[in-house]
Amino acid sequence: MAAFDVVAIGEPLYELNRQPAGYFLPGFGGDTLNVAIAAARLGSRCAYITRLGADIFADEIGEVMRREGIVMTGVRRDAAAPTGLYFVTHGPQGHVFTYRRQGSAASLMTPADLDPALIASSGFLHASGISQAISASAADAVSAAIAIARANGVKVSFDTNFRPKLWTAAAARGPIEAAAAQADILKTSAEDCQALIGVTAPEDIARHFLALGSKAVIVTLGADGAFIATSADAVHVPGRKVAAVDATGAGDAFTGALLAELARATALNQAARFANVAAALSTSGYGAIAPLARRDAVEAALAAGD
């Protein structure tokens, strides 16, 4: 039995989320950290790999990670670099991210920061396109982490999570597709794939990544649910209606819940239905982490149906 269900690598961030009254609500985020905490709240054993600064933001992020049960043996502190920040604002087209992360401690990650034994002790390694985008050395660290996982029989979960504010589609496509080709679970979106490969139909997206080598492809479709495909099967999981106020981190909530269920040996399509409900519930509050659901809430929503 693996020591951890999920080990994630990436950049935790301090979040400032603008509320309807105009003030900014402090919180925490970072896509792969969101995934780890979403999985941990659902009962998974999770650890994290990153660098944090030696500042108040890092102190508070560390406290959140400890409170959520995230093992921090893979977290290094860097006195010479800051912890990254991001702002969330809301408008007619949804939420908008504004980053203050250039030169952050996490962007200075290198393969030398990795603990191979930590990665090898997990059921899943989770990384993302954002983990790659923050710097060339961080991209190298992600590639090295995936290589360690593959060499030790650890399954790889990868989210394309393309952010044009971090890198261009032309720069992103190669590294993202190289990681996707090694993924047991590849999570993406129609929005990402329109930018990266010029394709938006879920069936075409799945076909593209399966041909690269991804074992299972999940295309999240917002309120319309998700499309799940393997070489043997494809299914659409309908969306769940909730009183949504903020979709920040909803895709990460989906991935964390999916991995938590797969770690319990739940079948992929059933795990995706569970994850779809967890993601919908995560939109009922503000911020990436605060609204992430506990298992009893997800199971109650599943039992209640539409």
Can you describe this structure?
The longest helix has 16 residues, at 136-151. The chain has eleven helices and 13 strands. The chain has a single domain (4-164, 247-301), classed as UDP-N-acetylmuramoyl-L-alanine:D-glutamate ligase (3-Layer(aba) Sandwich), CATH 3.40.1190. It is α/β, with parallel strands linked by helices and 306 residues long. The relative contact order is 0.15. β4, α2 (56-67) and β5 (71-78) form a beta-alpha-beta unit. The strands form two sheets. It has a nine-stranded mixed β-sheet, with helices on both faces. The protein has helices at 31-41, 56-67, 116-120, 129-133, 136-151, 169-180, 190-197, 202-212, 250-263, 268-282, 295-304, and strands at 4-9, 13-18, 24-29, 46-53, 71-78, 85-91, 94-100, 122-128, 155-159, 185-189, 216-220, 226-230, 234-237.
List the total number of helices: 11
The total strand number stands at 13
Shape: globular
In percent, how helical is the residue content? 25-40%
From the alpha-carbon coordinates, what is the Rg to the nearest angstrom?
18 Å
Strand content: 25-35%
End-to-end C-alpha gap: 36 Å
Please tell me the CATH architecture by its name.
Answer: 3-Layer(aba) Sandwich
Overall mean confidence score, pLDDT: 94
CATH fold node name: UDP-N-acetylmuramoyl-L-alanine:D-glutamate ligase
Number of spatially distinct domains? 1
- As residue ranges, the low-confidence spans are none
Strand order of the largest sheet: 5-4-1-8-9-10-11-12-13
- CATH class annotation: Alpha Beta
Q: Spell the H/E element sequence.
A: EEEHEHEEEHEHHEHEHHEEEHHH
- CATH fourth-tier homologous superfamily: Ribokinase
Give the biggest beta sheet. 9 strands, mixed
What is the structural class? alpha/beta
